[in-house]
Amino acid sequence: xxxxxxxxxxxxxxxxxxxxxxxxxxxxxxxxxxxxxxxxxxxxxxxxxxxxxxxxxxxxxxxxxxxxxxxxxxxxxxxxxxxxxxxxxxxxxxxxxxxxxxxxxxxxxxxxxxxxxxxxxxxxxxxxxxxxxxxxxxxxxxxxxxxxxxxxxxxxxxxxxxxxxxxxxxxxxxxxxxxxxxxxxxxxxxxxxxxxxxxxxxxxxxxxxxxxxxxxxxxxxxxxxxxxxxxxxxxxxxxxxxxxxxxxxxxxxxxxxxxxxxxxxxxxxxxxxxxxxxxxxxxxxxxxxxxxxxxxxxxxxxxxxxxxxxxxxxxxxxxxxxxxxxxxxxxxxxxxxxxxxxxxxx
Length: 346
Ligand SMILES: [Zn+2]
What we know:
Layout: E1 18-22, E2 25-31, E3 38-45, E4 50-53, H1 60-72, E5 79-83, H2 89-92, H3 95-102, E6 105-108, H4 110-120, H5 125-137, H6 142-151, E7 167-168, E8 174-177, E9 180-187, E10 194-199, E11 204-208, H7 230-242, E12 249-252, H8 261-282, H9 289-296, H10 305-322, E13 326-330, E14 336-340
Parallel strand pairs: 4-5, 5-6, 6-7, 11-12
Antiparallel strand pairs: 1-2, 2-3, 3-4, 8-9, 9-10, 10-11, 13-14
Residues 86, 88, 190, 209 line the site of zinc ion (ZN).
């Protein structure tokens, strides 16, 4: 029976404060302008400088906090390297600024860097058209379409320009950080090639957003890949983390460091199993992604959250389509309907 989740640290570091979470691994917590209002970043000392894992979102408050940390904690040694877990703006947002300001090199999985460069190009007629088609298919009415158009360029406003040059990192690669070996574990679902870092010597996993305590990582279908099956990728990635020891200290991208990895992996899988069952139940009649959202999310959602929620609903629907337990039919008006296939005895 896996142990319960345990949080070994009391409280959290203040904005711009640095706290040692494991020998030589320093925890930095930065603000975010969302309901999930913070991100955890990690600093590791090298002989000739520092490596930072993830950078924070592009905003003046986060830049000022980094300036303070570099001036105080980093003791005159430069930020040499950024290892970025994935393309989301809270993780890669300040990479361009850190490269310019400190000369830090960007290490990141190729697909994550490439997709950040694509989205970083900002709004375009083709993107707006793709967003419109995708959310119409999901069942959005004309009342929401103005909001849809405005979102297609959102990403570029939350990042500094993604560095032109990359040092690619790959699954299973072993990287020396701070004189210790860290293994790259690439997983899908939350993003394309999300990189987590595991150090067997320390028994520490820098998990990024792939394994979070308390909250389930967002697993969504997005307009740029409208037929994606991200939940299949995510559930497969959980198997990789089951190979790690139960007493691993997990340093997540959000919330607090914890132990009890196997129990958490089990809870994440159960969470999706339950939602898949509810999704299947809801589609006794043909349903849109938006109809299923109303079944899966009972709480009220703000304009930002509704996009994540419809993406999550589609992720569950597409997983069931991939398993042959659901059909997907697109009508002449562009709206796509899902209907469960057969019955329990079929
Ligand atoms: Zn993320």
